[in-house]
Amino acid sequence: xxxxxxxxxxPALRLWTNAPAFTALALLxxxxxxxxxxxxxxxxxxxxxxxxxxxxxxxxxxxxxxLVTLAFFARWMTQAQRDSRLWRGxxxxxxxxxxxxxxxxxxxAALGTGSHFNLSSAVWQQLYSLMGIAAVTLTSASLVMGLAxxxxxxxxxxxxxxxSVVLGLILTFVLTVITAGYMSSTPGxxxxxxxxxxxxxxxxxSREVGDLRVGHFLATHALHGLPLVGLVAARVGGVPLVWAxxxxxxxxxxxxxxxxxxxxxLF
Length: 267
Description:
Blueprint: H1 10-18, H2 20-31, H3 33-42, E1 46-47, E2 50-51, H4 54-73, H5 79-83, H6 85-110, H7 122-151, H8 159-184, E3 190-191, E4 210-211, H9 213-220, H10 222-233, H11 238-261
Antiparallel strand pairs: 1-2, 3-4
């Protein structure tokens, strides 16, 4: 059997079967990293002291991971839920919102300007508002999926693991809306004026002033962090440990966000 005709590995096949739209879009976004990386290599422009294509790169990676995670968790929805016209329509809207976000961010980079916090003209103000709605919509996919999995009595998961998946998905939406909603009302993600521009490697968070992106980042990854707690709780601690982990994670997000609002860097 040739490589072209070889069957897909079982995990990949399940992603395509249970969430074809999310999986296909994640693959498309990942492939689109090639032209973004090419633009970074050829375009020397900076915006806010960073490579102008860095933000599109980060969002491509983040949204691809988000979609693959949703596609993975979709296996614990019931077949009826996945096949419903309401769910399929909702998925289509979410995918369109993801594409709109990436086109907006990439388009702004191509034009040499910023996407977020760009109030330089009425057009950019309108786009910023519309993309805020799109961001809430695509994030709401985690809420809808979490509630759907909660209603499924036959996931086959250990109760602690199931609860951790459900709470992780729901908290991703709740905490992201809180942090992103506040950020959208500010002139930028820094609280204070950086002098040296010193930043945390890889993440780019300021080491001089408060950076609202810290809490926002942690909020968007609740769907990854809490299931890890659930895996531990399935062996020791059980459901109470998951509830404690969820509370601790929420406190961590809100504490780092409050720290940034106070103008203090994470490190």
